[in-house]
Input
Amino acid sequence: MAEKGLLLVLSGPSGVGKGTVKSAIVDNKVFPFEYSVSMTTRKPRPGEVDGQDYFFVSEAQFKAAIDQGQLLEYNQYVNHYYGTPLVPVKKMLAEGKDVLLEIDVNGARKVREKMPDGVFIFLTPPDLHTLHLRLENRGTEPEDVIMGRINQARTEILVMQDYDYAVVNDTVANAVDHIKAIVDAEHVSVKRVIDTYRKMVREN
Amino acid sequence: MAEKGLLLVLSGPSGVGKGTVKSAIVDNKVFPFEYSVSMTTRKPRPGEVDGQDYFFVSEAQFKAAIDQGQLLEYNQYVNHYYGTPLVPVKKMLAEGKDVLLEIDVNGARKVREKMPDGVFIFLTPPDLHTLHLRLENRGTEPEDVIMGRINQARTEILVMQDYDYAVVNDTVANAVDHIKAIVDAEHVSVKRVIDTYRKMVREN
Output
């Protein structure tokens, strides 16, 4: 019985290793999912194919896409825009395919507004997870280092609270195992499967 | 970082194979969990140990436990009472241990009232899952058989909607794999881990 696909959003603080974890999922074929091809205003590099690596568009086209609500999220880096087109993502989900987006926390927040039923995974820095050990062993590190880390942790926890899952990236293999379990579990969650069952008996 | 333990409630229609799935989890040590020892008014059978196989009590003691709200759920079969004592379950969860209860759907409903944060898994009959195939191939089976199965399915779906997960028991190995994924995923769900993180930074 095919349920609608899952929108998996993998995010977390910069430097936490989102890209590495995503690559491990792709390389080891941990679970099947579709790519979302991003839209960008930067020029293609040699070998890059339009519609495959990116949708390459002009700045005017990109801004029109923003205005028409055609982007799930977008961002600007170094004078160029990058965004996730909404229609292809919705089409893949309707076909029952899972879609994986690996984006920064600002992008993830925008995606949550448009697609609240997505599965939002916050990749957690291992030093947030082990911060309690450092706190228990105060004296071995300068107090200002500890206080700086506590303030950073407060910010990370504020962001994390809007996610569904918090996966510690202590090792890539562990993080990937947890993400696989999350995908498996979400596929059998009642909120995702019950409509299919209801439809089956209602139509007879 | 130890979060509070999970209360796992495995239930489903009678005959779906709850006991077999639970035994497979136990025998293959799929994940560690604690047993909840039930309380009963029936007499011990040869070899059964009080406090290990069951807490053996009198009917007066059992009724007193009901009156004092000491049972998470209870039921009566063939003139004997069977129930799940609340205090040991709460103690194990507070110690961060997972507790697995395998009970019927009436018991599960009572547990949900008292412990709404439990993880409720509905073991789904494979013929509910494959009913849509039978419906698509009408004519190969008598119509009254099909209609009887549709009515039964309606009842099962009504019960399922109060659960968190619906796991099809097509093969025991598949069901166990899904339950393992559910346990792994729930352990990294933000709603279960964030209090530990918040406590860590608040106390410093």
In short: Chain B has two domains: 1-33+98-204, 36-97. The two ends of chain B are 16 Å apart (CA to CA).
